[in-house]
Amino acid sequence: MADNSRPDDEPGDDGIPDEFRDMLRDILSGKSSIDPSQLAGAAGLPSDPASVAALMNQLQGALFSGGDGSINWDIALKQGQERAAAGQLTPTDAERAALQQAFRIAALWLDDVTAVAELLTAPGLITRKEWVTATMPLWTQLASPVASSISDALTRVLTEQAPEELRGMIANAGQVMRSLGGTLFAMQLGQVVGQLSSEVVSGGDVGIPLMGEEEAVLLPQNVAAFGEGLDIPADQVHIYLAVRELAHARLFRHSRWLRLHLISSVTEFARGIRIDTERLEELASTFDPSNPEELRQAMVNGSLIPPKTDAQLAALGRLETMLALVEGWVDVVTAEATERLPSSGAIAETVRRRRASGGPAESAFAALVGLELRPRRLREAAAMWQAVTDAVGNDARDALWAHPDLLPTAQDLDDPSGLVARLTGAASGEEPVLDEIDQALEDLLRDDGTERPHEE
To answer: What does pTM read for this prediction?
Structure first.
């Protein structure tokens, strides 16, 4: 009778050696000396029994599914929803009525100061958990390139650092290693987004358009927290934040190209992020599975992401300029629309300080993915939009959003005078002054290669 047995270090039908699978099974079933609560800490989870059990279930699923090594982002969604729901309060009928009234007033006031199109969908009020559910698809889109890079680099480094007799075993289990690493990253992302849901007050609060097109939302619980301690009537806070959110959403509906353009710029930047393999090799050479805190800290403090290349810095500069243009326009329009609010200036200053500092979850996302969401040149952009408004009015200002080629540039943020001169000249019917490149192009287009008849 044939002996169908095989050595433990040879791969099974799924390509994973029995010895490696048994080792991971012992860890996840609690039979190993490695404490599962420490693995929970590596995923950014609390060490309570429920959180540890949830982590073990997710990792067991990644191990035993025999998958292709891809990341299951449903884990991030579940983690984010659970984190958001933990401190969530359901808004009362009175709170809902007050914010819905604020949205109605905001719409009327915005009509007076901008011609950008109204929303076809009524603005909404959502909970923290609903915000996580609505925005997670974009968060995972932004994080996916970094998650894949970390998983690939971790598998490669562990293979290289392993003793010679174990390298083949780990290489054969590469897909499982990627799944386990991706699971830990997805859980970490879910925790960050779940925490972020307690910091944002609206759909457009972080600058990038997280919600779908034509969606404006406020989070009543967080709006109430924003107003605490300001000594400002709640209705004024509600109206101001409703105006900001509606202005942001209307702009993206008015400029149909803007959302895709902005998200494409963000993902283009994210794809250029690479992992510092030297730092990862240092961690791998001293890695103690019973104490994964050092690895977790490296993931959340950004030390695995090396300094940006020149190409990345250039892409980031373009992205920051676009974000600043959006946020600066929203600031100027909101200030004009809320002039009749007695406390408008005080609320605006609170928004500026809050935006400048960001929150803990936003900082964690920046470290995890390598991307800061706050535009650095917001004040310059707001000053430029105000100069344009003063010179040519609201309609000519908003017409610049018709196409990306019409938008102000980073140079215009440095010195708006040239832009203002061009716009005021165009408004008065003056022929635009062409630079050398534009003049050469104009001459080329006018020259059709034929003799023109002489005028009599």
So the answer is: 0.78
